[in-house]
């Protein structure tokens, strides 16, 4: 053992002095520095933990906000869709009403036009018929002037024929 | 107007029925005319005579036929006699208003119009 210590070159005095110095430094550090460092570390740890918690909370809050946002978007989309369908339905109803009114108006105009057309035809027919009758009257009167005896003869013969029929 | 023309006519016919001869009939007619004048009903005279004739013809079973033409016609009576009774009285009358043809008036009630005027009216 003595040989080994000598081989290693250990000086007992120096070793004790170093141990002593070490203990002195240790005591000084323990008394003056260790608590402070520990406190700083604890504060640091606490801050980090708080930061992590806050970060987690923020993340959670963010997720909630994201979720809320998606819900709001869905709700808004749904409302927009409903509004769109409602407006589309209203527009379709309005369109149908307009078409119906237009159809009614069209039918009314057609009926009126038809009446006017029929009246015009009747009017033309009446005029033509009246003209024809006037022409016939004039012709008959001309014929009467030319050959009154012939007309007498024809009409009297007609009277005879009619009386024959009545007598039968 | 004191009385209706029908009352006058009926009275005249019944008075004439009771007359024995033509002299009496003439007297009745004169008195009747006097009565009409007195009652101021001369305006009804034509109606009275027509109605009285109608009553008489009806009693005797006869009809008065008037053949109206615009111009004189030959043999018109003979042509139409066959369509009526022998007792019926057929008269011819010129009426230029009918223009041409013939109008047959029976007892001043019925008429068969074959006149030219009627044809023109039908065109109106």
Verbal overview:
The complex is a heterodimer of chains A (168) and B (124). Chain A is 96% helix and 0% strand. By secondary structure, chain A is mainly α. Chain A is built from three helices and no strands. Chain A has one domain. Chain A has helices at residues 2-8, 12-146, 148-167. Chain B has two domains: 5-60, no CATH class; 64-122, no CATH class. In chain B, 48% of the residues lie in helices and 19% in strands. The longest helix of chain B has 17 residues, at 22-38. The N and C termini of chain B lie far apart (38 Å). The A-B interface holds A 133, 136-137, 140-141, 144, 148-149, 151-152, 154-156, 158-160, 162-164, 166-167 and B 69-71, 73, 76, 79-80, 83, 99-102, 104, 112, 114-116, 119-120, 123-124.
Give the count of structural domains of chain A.
1
* Quaternary organization: heterodimer
H and E order of chain A: HHH
The total strand number of chain A stands at 0
How many whole angstroms does the radius of gyration of chain B measure? 18 Å
Which key features would you list for this structure?
heterodimer; A: 168 residues; mainly alpha; 3 helices; 96% helix; B: 124 residues; alpha+beta; four-stranded mixed β-sheet; 5 helices; 4 strands; 48% helix
């Amino acid at each position: 053992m003595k040989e080994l210590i000598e081989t290693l070159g250990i000086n007992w005095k120096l070793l004790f002095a170093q141990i002593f110095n070490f203990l002195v430094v240790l005591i000084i550090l323990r008394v003056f520095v260790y608590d402070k460092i520990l406190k700083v570390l604890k504060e640091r740890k606490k801050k980090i933990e708080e930061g992590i918690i806050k970060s987690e909370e923020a993340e959670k809050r963010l997720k909630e906000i994201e979720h809320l946002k998606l819900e709001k978007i869905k709700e808004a989309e749904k409302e927009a869709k409903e509004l769109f369908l409602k407006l589309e339905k209203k527009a379709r109803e309005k369109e149908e009403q307009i078409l119906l009114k237009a159809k009614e108006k069209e039918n009314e105009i057609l009926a009126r036009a038809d009446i006017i057309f029929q009246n015009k035809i009747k009017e033309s027919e009446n005029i033509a018929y009246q003209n024809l009758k006037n022409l016939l009257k004039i012709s008959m009167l001309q014929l009467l002037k030319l050959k009154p005896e012939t007309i007498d003869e024809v009409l009297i013969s007609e009277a005879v024929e009619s009386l024959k029929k009545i007598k039968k | 107007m004191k009385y209706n023309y029908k009352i006058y006519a009926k009275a005249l016919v019944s008075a004439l029925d009771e007359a024995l001869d033509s002299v009496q009939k003439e007297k009745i007619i004169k008195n009747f005319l006097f009565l009409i004048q007195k009652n101021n009903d001369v305006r009804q005279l034509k109606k009275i005579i027509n109605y009285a004739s109608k009553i008489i013809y009806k009693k005797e079973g006869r009809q008065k036929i008037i053949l109206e033409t615009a111009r004189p016609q030959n043999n018109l009576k003979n042509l139409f006699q066959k369509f009526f009774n022998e007792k019926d009285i057929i008269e011819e009358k010129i009426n230029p208003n009918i223009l041409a043809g013939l109008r047959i008036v029976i007892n001043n009630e019925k008429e068969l119009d074959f006149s030219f005027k009627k044809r023109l009216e039908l065109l109106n």
